[in-house]
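Below is a concrete protein record.
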Amino acid sequence: MEMSEELISQAQTTATSTQDLLDQLLKPEVQQSLTTLVEQLPKLAEVVTLLTKAYDFAQLVATDDVLKNDTVTAVKEVAEPVIGAVKNVAANAIEAKERAESTNEAVGIFGLLKLLKDPEVQNVLRFVNAFLQVSAERKNQQ
């Protein structure tokens, strides 16, 4: 007896749910939304296909040990010279600071003239001059 009452209750619930669904489907805004969705299905299928391909490619890349090792090696090859150059500049700056702090020697006009003959000073002055010219040209272009 209980089994048949339960089946009747489930049938009534299903009928109510079906009626609620039909009521929703009969609303004009729902019908318009469904029509729009159906019209866009080819585009949606294309987007899903592209996303699937992108996902598959990402999975392949993420699990490809050879590619990961090659990428790490390439990054190291690019980064190591830069790191070396930065370390060299930092070491030079530290040593120059220590030398400058260790002396109280005044640099006079003749010292400046002597410095102007130094090839390194000439390189720096040419760079500063070129930098200022480029900056002025770009400022005038704006």
Observations:
- The chain has a mean pLDDT of 87.
- The radius of gyration is 38 Å.
- The helical segments are 2-25, 28-39, 41-63, 65-101, 109-116, 119-141.
- Residues 65-101 form the longest helix (37 residues).
